């Protein structure tokens, strides 16, 4: 879909509520953008934004009147306010970035990226909704008793909502003999 400012495109992974659109109000939105040239980002007043470069050599991101922040380490989340004008300068060619936006009036978010091997790890209970996104490898999910609960292929996402009854504790691991990389996103009420 086109960026709100018309300077590029984004693949929307998910938005809440599901019938919302980026031009209106939404609680949260997760997307991946292909950034082919330097330029301004769309403004999103009232939203907290988390961005991380997932492919390419990075960018300098200038937000408001603050000095530009260099984002050249892959899978390192950076949080900033959508209230201020933001502009990126690509360092050396196109990038792909992973974006989370949350409505500050209703939600708080935390993003972390984990490297997984085949040893099961507990996915600690969340106080709100949780999103798991698989960047690469295959992630196997299981209940805390070890019963299979599904798997995530590369570029696939699981939304574990408290509202839909996802209350069981889970464990996760890379598929046997492999490694995987995942974003774990926790969303809780403000």
Order of helices and strands: EEEEEEEEEEEEEEEEE
CATH topology of the largest domain: Jelly Rolls
Mean pLDDT: 89
Record field, number of beta strands:
17
Percentage of β-strand residues: over 45%
| CATH 2nd-level architecture of the largest domain | Sandwich
What best-fitting shape do the alpha-carbon axes yield? globular
Largest sheet: 5 strands, antiparallel
Question: What percentage of residues falls in helices of 4 or more residues?
Answer: under 10%
**Terminal residue distance:** 29 Å
Strand order of the largest sheet: 1-2-9-4-7
Provide an overview of this structure.
By secondary structure, the chain is mainly β. It folds into 2 domains: 9-104, Jelly Rolls (Sandwich); 108-189, Sandwich (Jelly Rolls), CATH 2.60.120. It is 0% helix and 55% strand. It is built from no helices and 17 strands. It has strands spanning 9-16, 28-35, 39-40, 47-55, 59-63, 69-71, 78-81, 86-90, 95-103, 107-116, 121-123, 129-136, 139-143, 148-152, 156-160, 170-174, 180-189. A 5-stranded antiparallel beta sheet has the order 1-2-9-4-7, with no helix packed on it. A hairpin with a 4-residue loop joins strand 13 (139-143) and strand 14 (148-152). The radius of gyration is 17 Å and the shape is globular.
